[in-house]
Amino acid sequence: GRVKMSAEEILVCAVELGKNFCLYFDELECDALCKEKTLHRVLRNVNSQLLVVRPDLNVAAFEDVTDQEMQSGKGMHFSIHCYKTTTPLAGMPVAFSVQVEDKSYYMCCERECGEMIVRFKEGEVPKEIPGESNIIFFKKTFTSCCSKAFKFEYSMERGMFLAFEEEGYLRKLILKKLSKDEVDETMKISL
């Protein structure tokens, strides 16, 4: 499998560098994100459909889910990892992961053929994230009057939010640009 480097291992290397390590920790202090808590939730869209991740098909989409399917919970029970932030104005930094069978997958965004694609990759979410990361989204309330629903802005491209798009019968999870002062219901996610 792939070699995973955890934040701890990186820290150990940094200490061995000796003269460099002060600098490293200073930097870490400023803009590193440390995991604070993890919420366990299902993600619903405006149509009360649940977000379901199917890694075998490389797809994540909002679907009508029966109670029975919900109990088996394959690919729909998310962990929302909340990170501490020094800049609360941007929203709470979160990362998403989901269990499917006995594997954990995390959500990230990648540029492909000029557009941003939401992907789920096998692996764990790191406890600490130094600086920027393509797995971090800012959780914001959907509208000022509606505190129960949220929208999630991609941290590395402001103005891009998680949303769904109808593709045939699928309501696929995508990243979508919010045009100014618009309320876009496809970005509305309830936890």
UniProtKB/TrEMBL annotation:
Q: What GO biological process terms are annotated to this protein in UniProt?
A: cellular response to lipopolysaccharide; cytokine-mediated signaling pathway; immune response; inflammatory response; positive regulation of cytokine production
A GO cellular component term found in this entry reads:
cytoplasm
Q: Which Gene3D superfamilies match?
A: 2.80.10.50
Compartments it resides in: Cytoplasm; Secreted
Indicate the principal place this protein occupies in or around the cell.
cytoplasm
**UniProt keyword Secreted, yes or no:** yes
Does the keyword field hold Secreted? yes
Recorded GO molecular functions are:
cytokine activity
Alphabetical keyword list? Cytokine, Cytoplasm, Secreted
**What is the similarity comment for this entry?**
Belongs to the IL-1 family.
Q: How does it assemble?
A: Forms a ternary complex with ligand-binding receptor subunit IL18R1 and signaling receptor subunit IL18RAP at the plasma membrane. Mature IL18 first binds to IL18R1 forming a low affinity binary complex, which then interacts with IL18RAP to form a high affinity ternary complex that signals inside the cell. Interacts with cargo receptor TMED10; the interaction mediates the translocation from the cytoplasm into the ERGIC (endoplasmic reticulum-Golgi intermediate compartment) and thereby secretion.
By what name is this protein known?
Answer: Interleukin-18
- Organism field: Edolisoma coerulescens
**Native organism taxonomy:** Eukaryota, Metazoa, Chordata, Craniata, Vertebrata
